[in-house]
Design goal:
Layout: E1 22-23, E2 26-27, H1 30-33, H2 63-73, H3 92-104, E3 109-113, H4 116-127, E4 133-138, H5 142-154, E5 158-163, H6 168-179, E6 184-190, H7 202-213, E7 220-223, E8 241-245, E9 259-263, H8 265-278, H9 284-294, H10 297-316, E10 321-325, H11 335-343, E11 350-355, H12 359-368, E12 373-374, E13 384-386, H13 398-403, E14 410-414, H14 420-432
Parallel strand pairs: 4-5, 4-6, 6-7, 7-8, 12-13
Antiparallel strand pairs: 1-2, 3-9, 8-9, 10-11, 11-14, 13-14
């Protein structure tokens, strides 16, 4: 190769450019930053989009550099790895993804995982030890409840919960009861709750925690999958960590499985150490697919939210519908409406539909759908419908399901980006067949 400094030879290789997050005094919006934040084409032969880095390991420039990186990976350096080491720890696609995930909630740091449940499991194992107590809202996603109550229970970790809509005194009462049983290691929330769509008052949880456990406050983590990152930003209201199933809205096309935790930098460092050991990081190809999906996240969520509003307006007054658990229909002046006004900027596109009748009516409705797909999950471009009591929450004990409102006549619906009038027609004909 010619000398890069020789004007008659090849042009010098472009130098990396700084990331631009503002123009003058204007801070760029997340939807803009999704198009290039965290990636420099100069580092990838000028590629407009990040390549997929399918490699298991990375070459060090020197032995001393390798030592420094491993000091970071093993926690001996507080600032973590200063470069790429091994794909169980980090990689270019994952690091770009994590940079962009943090933008949406203005988080100090972010981590990506191989699934939403691997993110939750890694989080719980980071902060909880035998003899500790977890305080959580209820209901939670069934696999999360199983992980806490059955699997961590075998390790001597206990739990107490409070209903999703609990007031600050009610939350404080549960925290006090848990503290009497052991060290409260983590407060874990899910809002809106899956599948009932009931909101948790994060500000009340933070106030109760700081008042009762302020000497050694446990982290507050929240599953923000249903409304985040567009319609709810819990870090602004007192949560320390925001947890995602990226499979849902962030991925948005029902073609990948992944998870994330974003939030407080010091806490993320602790979770990172556990992830390094367990190897629960997302893979490069999935991370690359998520980078693609994040570019249209706001567009997809806004369209789905507008569709849901129109569909729910139709369902609300249908004679075969008992009620619709949609956040746009909260009773003015109610506690849930107050939480919504303080915490949320949109009603979302996933809601609970309670039909008149029981399991037979719910099944007949689901089996009659034409456009909407009978499948679990949510947040995709297509409309999905399922029966939580018989499917996602089948493993939850019957008495607890009843107490939490997960009844046989409940159908969970996630609205997609189809034509809204077509969706209304589909739900109308399915209801006619009950």
């Amino acid at each position: 190769m010619d000398n890069p400094e020789d004007p008659a030879g090849e042009a010098p290789r472009r130098r990396p450019r700084p990331d631009v997050t503002a123009i003058g005094n204007r801070r760029l919006r997340p939807s803009t930053l999704m198009m290039g934040h965290g990636f420099d084409p100069a580092l990838s032969e000028g590629a407009l989009k990040p390549p997929i880095f399918l490699t298991s390991t990375f070459v060090f420039e020197s032995a001393a550099e390798g030592k420094r990186h491993f000091e970071g990976v093993t926690g001996q350096r507080p600032d973590g790895a200063q470069g790429l080491v091994y794909s169980r720890f980090n990689g270019p696609n994952q690091e770009i993804l994590e940079d962009r995930l943090g933008v949406w909630e203005d988080a100090e740091d972010a981590l990506s995982f191989s699934s939403g449940m691997s993110a939750i499991a890694t989080l719980l194992l980071t902060f909880c030890a035998p003899g500790d107590m977890i305080v959580h809202s209820g209901p939670l996603y069934a696999a999360t409840e199983t992980l806490i109550a059955r699997i961590l229970g075998r390790l001597g970790i206990g739990w107490l919960d409070f209903p999703a809509g609990a007031t600050e005194p009610e939350i404080a009462s549960v925290l006090e009861a848990a503290r009497a049983k052991g060290r409260v290691a983590l407060i874990y929330l899910e809002s809106p709750a899956n599948p009932t769509n009931v909101l948790v008052d994060v500000e009340a949880v933070r106030a109760a925690r700081d008042r009762l456990l302020g000497d050694a406050p446990p982290p507050i983590a929240i599953d923000n999958t249903f409304l985040g990152p567009l319609w709810q930003k819990p870090l602004r209201h007192g949560a320390d960590l925001s947890v995602y199933s990226l499979t849902k809205y962030a991925g948005g096309h029902s073609d990948l499985v992944a998870g994330a935790v974003v939030g407080n930098g010091a806490l993320i460092r602790e979770v990172r150490m556990m992830r390094n050991t367990l190897g629960t990081i997302t893979d490069p190809h999935t991370a690359w697919m998520l980078l693609r999906s994040l570019e249209t996240l706001e567009l997809r969520m806004e369209r789905a939210g507008a569709n849901a509003q129109k569909v729910c307006a139709f369902l609300r007054d249908h004679p075969k519908v008992e009620r619709v658990g949609y956040l746009g229909f909260l009773e003015p002046g109610s506690r849930q409406a107050d939480i919504f006004a303080r915490h949320c900027s949109g009603a979302g596109s996933t809601f609970s539909l309670y039909l008149k009748g029981g399991e037979a009516e719910a099944f007949r409705f689901l089996d009659s759908l034409v456009i909407a797909k009978l499948a679990v999950s949510l947040g995709g471009t297509e409309t999905l419908a399922s029966a939580p009591a018989a499917m996602t929450h089948l493993s939850v004990p019957k008495a607890r399901k009843t107490a939490l409102g997960i009844t046989p006549n409940l159908v969970r619906i996630s609205i997609g980006v189809e034509d809204p009038d077509d969706l209304v027609a589909d739900f109308a004909q399915a209801l006619d067949l009950i």
